[in-house]
């Protein structure tokens, strides 16, 4: 199944002080748009506590929260740019946090079909020009087009 | 005689996302260095069922317990911060 990029899942200026608030709003959006089951929200919040997803980049922290495939209907990625940086624990660390400004909440359906998209998403984290663009651009349809291009997804 | 094929476990929290990317990196690394090893991708919670046959665990998660096999943390494969160090740790562990 091909990953969809949906303009409704691009959230700019998301407000929240704690990561749970952020994750909750992103998961609600995925659920409202039908991409995930109602169980996704509690699962993704619980998983972030055990398996943190904050990643340092050269520009600012980026989080890639996700959870098990059973909670997903259709693969997609919800992108949120935060109103203010929110601390996330760094992936692979017990307690060390990083201020995160951007999150890609992944709703994944199967592993290998999405390898290419996942690799390209990780490449965005290493691309300072792309990170700067995603931190500044105000037009959601432009961001969507940018993401489709960067992730190598052709809309059908 | 051929060396026994080694087994490398690549694990993350869900077994579908970061371990997919890291697993690909490890496979490429092993092939480039002619290491006779295969990669098994799994959830970190599933490592116990493979641990006895495996030679190395490569993971992006925190470690909730001690393992019988060497462990290499590979988050930096995702961020591309000094990935050469992880390459070397993996190759050294499989010598």
Q: Can you put this structure into words, describing what you see?
A:
The complex is a heterodimer of chains A (156) and B (95). Chain A has helices at 19-32, 40-50, 115-125, 128-136, 140-151; strands at residues 10-14, 54-55, 61-63, 76-89, 97-107. Chain A has 5 helices and 5 strands. The termini of chain A are close together. In chain A, strands 1-4-5-3-2 form a 5-stranded mixed sheet. Chain A is globular. The mean pLDDT of chain A is 94. Chain A is of the alpha/beta class. In chain A, α1 (19-32) packs antiparallel against α2. Chain B has 95 residues and is α/β, with parallel strands linked by helices. Helices cover 33% and strands 22% of the residues of chain B. A 4-stranded parallel sheet of chain B has the order 2-1-3-4, with helices on one face. In chain B, α1 (18-32) links the parallel β1 and β2 (37-43). The mean pLDDT of chain B is 94. Chain A binds chain B through residues 47, 50-52, 55-57, 64, 66-69, 90-94, 106, 108, 110-112, 114-115, 118-119, 122, 125-126, and chain B through 12-18, 20-21, 24, 41, 44, 59-62, 73, 75, 78-81.
């Amino acid at each position: 199944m091909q990953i969809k990029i949906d303009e409704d899942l691009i959230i700019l200026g998301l407000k929240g002080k704690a990561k749970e608030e952020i994750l909750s709003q992103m998961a609600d959006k995925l659920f409202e748009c039908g991409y995930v089951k109602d169980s996704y929200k509690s699962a993704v919040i619980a998983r972030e506590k055990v398996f943190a997803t904050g990643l340092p980049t050269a520009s600012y922290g980026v989080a890639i929260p996700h959870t098990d495939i059973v909670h997903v209907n259709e693969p997609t990625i919800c992108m949120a740019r935060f109103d203010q940086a929110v601390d996330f624990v760094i992936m692979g660390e017990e307690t060390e946090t990083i201020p995160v400004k951007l999150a890609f909440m992944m709703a994944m359906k199967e592993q290998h079909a999405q390898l290419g998209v996942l690799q390209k998403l990780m490449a965005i984290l290493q691309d300072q020009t792309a990170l700067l663009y995603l931190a500044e651009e105000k037009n959601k349809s432009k961001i969507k087009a940018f993401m489709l291009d960067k992730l190598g997804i052709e809309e059908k | 005689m051929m060396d026994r094929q080694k087994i490398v476990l690549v694990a993350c929290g869900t077994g579908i996302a970061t371990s997919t990317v890291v697993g690909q990196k490890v496979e490429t690394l092993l092939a480039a260095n002619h290491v006779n090893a295969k990669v098994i991708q799994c959830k970190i919670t599933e490592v116990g069922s493979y641990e006895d046959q495996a030679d190395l665990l490569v993971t992006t998660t925190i470690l909730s317990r001690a393992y019988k096999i060497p462990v290499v943390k590979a988050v930096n494969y995702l961020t591309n911060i000094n990935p050469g160090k992880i390459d070397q740790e993996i190759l050294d562990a499989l010598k």
